[in-house]
């Protein structure tokens, strides 16, 4: 499979660069690091990186896809358990003897290679008992089991269970389990984990943090060139430069451009088409974000639009908002709103300058005044 395959990659040969990040992850796996954080904006390749490195290790592993909770306001314990146990089923095929152990956990049944919740019982299994069982099995095998939670910030929506004490327990006592959390909304993930909050269960725990950045300008051009060369296409440099100026170094957008250009031709028109498609996707994602936060929705959009129109400092964005609303807004409330947008990854703050890291979101705000 080629560089321009639009799905998350699973093979190193389809992954452009990321050598350093791959070796950091591999090291984390070898040492069975209790907590690994894989952070980066949307579409920088977190899922790909995780899949590729899991593919290269021979340690048993699963990925729990928390993206399925993205559109929800909250997650019940039962909903989480269903997703969790279904994901764990993937372990059973490779882990001999594990299903016998797991079938002894109260509230769980094993049917073939499927791990299911036993609904005939009132009792729900506890996550801790499931993880303890996996750890026991791993210990007997002398192995480390890797459990990835993709887009883990979604777990902050869990209700009816305090998940942080569970994670802290796994961190401290289940030495044969390594947890990997990926997160697009980096601030949200940190707010959820509370690693720096003295009153929180995970306080003071050290995480191995791996950050995925956008491709540099040169990498972006090189990525596109290499991708087209896989098909014997020598793409005109000017068009590639145009594509990178519009799509920036975001691997997902560049991949999408490559994918469409392969069938439609390497033209500026395809760059525009990809931009349109990308804007639709980002609009949908942004609307999902607003839908769960209806009260501040209007203000979030005004703030982002201000930044898109190059009002980049705290005070100039605030003035913009106040002029449009025709009234003052308290410093506290305003700072809070900005922080939320930064934590969700829609804004970036560097040296007190605010910027929109995704060029597509920026274009969307500039072009479509009705959001
Ligand atoms: P994330 O999980 O961070 O949102 P994904 O792993 O889903 O990102 O990647 C988004 C898109 O970009 C996918 O189409 C994937 O194939 C592609 N992609 C990301 N990083 C790379 C890379 N280093 N090389 C090739 N393709 C990549
Ligand atoms: Mg992903």
User: Which strand-content bin applies to the residues?
Assistant: 5-15%
Determine the CATH topology of the largest domain: Rossmann fold
Strand segment count:
9
Apparent shape: globular
Q: Which hetero compounds are present in the coordinates?
A: adenosine-5'-diphosphate, magnesium ion
User: What would you say the CATH architecture of the largest domain is?
Assistant: 3-Layer(aba) Sandwich
- What is the average per-residue confidence, as pLDDT, rounded to a whole number? 96
The CATH superfamily of the largest domain is identified as: P-loop containing nucleotide triphosphate hydrolases
How many domains? The number is 3
SSE class:
alpha/beta
């Amino acid at each position: 499979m080629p560089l321009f395959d639009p799905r998350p990659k699973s093979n190193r040969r389809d992954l452009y660069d990321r050598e350093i990040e791959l070796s950091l992850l591999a090291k984390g796996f070898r040492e069975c690091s209790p907590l690994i954080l894989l952070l980066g904006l949307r579409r920088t390749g977190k899922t790909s990186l995780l899949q590729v490195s899991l593919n290269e290790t021979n340690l048993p592993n699963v990925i729990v896809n928390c993206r399925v909770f993205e559109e929800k306001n909250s997650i019940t314990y039962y909903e989480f358990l269903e997703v969790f146990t279904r994901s764990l089923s993937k372990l059973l095929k490779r882990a001999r003897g594990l299903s016998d152990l797991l079938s002894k956990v109260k509230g769980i049944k094993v049917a073939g290679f499927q791990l299911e919740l036993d609904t005939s019982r009132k009792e729900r299994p506890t996550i801790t008992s499931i993880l303890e069982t996996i750890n026991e099995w791993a210990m007997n095998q002398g192995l480390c089991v890797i459990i990835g939670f993709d887009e883990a910030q979604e777990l902050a929506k869990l209700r009816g269970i305090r998940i942080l004490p569970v994670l802290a327990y796994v961190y401290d006592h289940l030495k044969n389990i390594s947890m990997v959390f990926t997160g697009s909304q980096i601030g949200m993930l940190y707010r959820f984990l509370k690693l720096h909050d003295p009153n929180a269960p995970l306080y003071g725990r050290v995480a191995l943090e791996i950050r995925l950045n956008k491709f540099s300008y040169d990498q972006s051009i090189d990525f596109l060139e290499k991708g087209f060369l896989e098909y014997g296409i020598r793409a005109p440099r000017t068009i590639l430069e145009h594509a990178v100026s519009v799509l920036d170094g975001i691997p997902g957008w560049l991949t999408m451009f490559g994918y469409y250009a392969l069938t439609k031709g390497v033209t500026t028109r395809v760059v525009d088409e990809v931009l349109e498609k990308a804007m639709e996707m980002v609009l949908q994602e942004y609307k999902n974000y607003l839908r769960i936060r209806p009260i501040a929705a209007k203000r979030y959009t005004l703030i982002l639009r201000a930044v898109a129109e190059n009002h980049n400092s705290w005070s100039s964005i605030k003035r913009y908002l106040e002029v449009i609303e025709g009234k003052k807004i308290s410093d506290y409330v305003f700072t809070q709103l900005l922080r939320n947008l930064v934590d969700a990854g829609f804004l970036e703050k560097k040296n007190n300058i605010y910027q929109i890291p995704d060029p597509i979101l920026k274009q969307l705000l500039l072009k479509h005044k009705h959001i």
